[in-house]
Amino acid sequence: MNFKIQELFPIALYKNKLNFKLNKKQMKFATTCDRKLNTYNISSLNSFVLELPLFKNLKKAIEEKTAHYLLNIEFANPSIEFFITQSWFNYTKKGQAHHEHEHPNSFLSGVYYINADKKLDSITFVNKRKYEIQLPVNNYNFYNSKSFNLPVSTDDFIMFPSSTTHRVEIKDGKNERLSLAFNVFIKGDLGDEKGLWNLKI
User: 14 pairs with which residues across the strands?
Assistant: First the structure.
């Protein structure tokens, strides 16, 4: 039987390598800065890490990847600008996790993994689509799965729409996963004035 599957409104999960390594001063800050308790793990008290002069080169590297996403995935008009709103470190040890959540008041969100083991570390994305009827399935795929688990390793860089629900499962292994999370918003002349959905930011 000949048939065709047309992907309909998929979510773009961008994954790449940042090709960046923190220097000694940056790593010292990341591992010794003040921390606070999150729901099931720990994050840096400073939530504007990329605004520090110490991380100027890291911010530039992340902005380059963000621009690539907007131009090649969203195909956004080049006149649209973007800016990083908040950025913070996450620390996850054995037995810790990260609650299921989204990032409101943001357009894109991303994570740069500074220290992670692909055999032990991952991030899980959740399908929030409503299903009136659920069928038992023999094989899971991108169309019938309710969640997707993405293994991550050191230097991985991921980006996704901020409305995408995600979580981190309870961690195993002795390593402490260290990552930098951030949010991105956009500005410029958005939308169409004639269509009555124009927004200038």
Answer: 159
Computed on alpha carbons and rounded to an integer, the radius of gyration of the chain in Å comes to 19
- Provide the sign of the torsion angle of the four alpha carbons 42, 47, 48, 54, taken in this order: negative
Q: Domain total for the chain? A: 1
| pLDDT tens-digit series, residues 153-170 | 999 999 999 999 999 999
- Which residues constitute the domain of residue 58? 14-128+141-200
Residue 146, domain CATH:
2.60.120.620
Q: Which residues are CB-neighbours of 193 under 8 A, at least 6 positions away? A: none
What tokens does 33 get?
């800065």
Per-residue pLDDT reduced to its tens digit, 94-134: 999 999 999 999 999 999 999 999 999 999 999 998 888 88
Where would I find the beta strands (DSSP E) of the chain? Answer: 14-17, 35-37, 42-44, 81-92, 98-101, 108-115, 122-126, 147-151, 156-161, 165-168, 177-187, 189-190, 199-200
